[in-house]
Structures are given as C-alpha cells and as structure tokens.
C-alpha cells in the first residue's frame, strides 16, 4: 500500500475526469476538446525551483506563454496541429488541439529575472532562481 499525500481537491479532480469521460462516451468524435490538466512536476534545488510540464504538440515557441510571480508559475498557450487526414476518413481523434492553461504554486519565492525555459520532445522545463536573502523585514513599532 502506497502512502498518498493529502490533496483536498482530489475529489473535484476525479469529478472533472468522470464528467469529461461522460462526454467522450456520448460524443466520441468530440473527445479531444480540452487538454484537461497539464501534468506538472515541481521541485527545488539549493539555488532554484524547477517546473516540468508535459505539453505535446506545440510547434512554435510563440504558442507558449510563461508568467512568473514570487510564489506562482502560470503556463498557457495553444496547440495547433495540421489536419493531415480529411475529416471523412478520420475514425478517431484523441490528440488535443486548442488552448491550455495551468498555474502552480511554488515551494519558495523566486525572482522573475533569470528565468530560463526550454521545450524539447513535448516537455517544457522552466528553471527559476530563488530569491536571495530573507524577504521578511522587521517592522519598527512606535511605542509610546
């Protein structure tokens, strides 16, 4: 038996997957209308936070947008695939075409300067340097 970390939103993810499956069963030709949730791995090293996303089918770097905040990373964009087969000859379409969006919280505050991103074989890797020093500040109290 594996130890699974507590996720308060797991029920909603399962509900969404069941709902998506329901529409795939009812409308098999419309199976790939949404990419759903992008799979993401987030880990940290001594000097940086690294996020890895599975985004197959992106053909141009202009199709991916990355926004970095102190404590969150947002990846969004579009997957455009060329129609290789005429629609009347298509029996099943399961590859995703359309827009995607995912925001993940980061385990440590990061600096937007110095962020590096690379995309290879359908995998996007974003490396973000951690903020240097303590971002907390002692507040002086005016005591009377």
Please explain how this structure is put together:
There is one protein chain. The N and C termini lie far apart (60 Å). The protein has a domain at 37-83 and 94-129: Immunoglobulin-like (Sandwich). A hairpin with a 3-residue loop joins strand 1 and strand 2 (48-54). The chain has a 4-stranded antiparallel sheet with strand order 1-2-7-6, with no helix packed on it. A 3-stranded antiparallel sheet has the order 3-4-5, with no helix packed on it. The protein is extended, with a radius of gyration of 20 Å. Helix content is 12%, strand content 31%. The protein is built from 1 helix and 7 strands, in the order αβββββββ. The protein has one helix at residues 10-26; strands at residues 40-44, 48-54, 64-68, 72-79, 98-105, 116-120, 123-129. It has 144 residues and is mainly beta.
SSE order in H/E notation?
Answer: HEEEEEEE
How many strands, which pairing sense, and closed or not: the largest β-sheet?
4 strands, antiparallel
Portion in helices: 10-25%
Query: What proportion of the residues form beta strands (DSSP E)?
Result: 25-35%
Count of runs of 4 or more consecutive helical residues: 1
The CATH architecture designation of the domain at 37-83 and 94-129 is Sandwich
């Amino acid at each position: 038996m594996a130890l699974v970390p507590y996720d308060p939103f797991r029920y909603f993810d399962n509900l969404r997957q069941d709902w998506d499956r329901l529409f795939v069963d009812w409308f098999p030709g419309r199976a790939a209308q949404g990419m759903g949730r992008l799979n993401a791995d987030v880990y940290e090293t001594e000097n940086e936070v690294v996020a890895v996303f599975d985004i197959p089918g992106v053909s141009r770097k202009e199709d991916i947008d990355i926004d970095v905040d102190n404590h969150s990373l947002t990846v969004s964009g579009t997957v455009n695939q060329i129609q290789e087969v005429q629609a009347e000859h298509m029996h099943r379409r399961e590859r995703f075409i359309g827009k995607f969006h995912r925001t993940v919280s980061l385990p440590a505050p990061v600096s937007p300067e110095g962020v590096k991103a690379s995309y290879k074989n359908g995998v996007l890797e974003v490396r973000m340097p951690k903020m240097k020093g303590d971002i907390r500040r002692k507040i002086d109290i005016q005591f009377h």
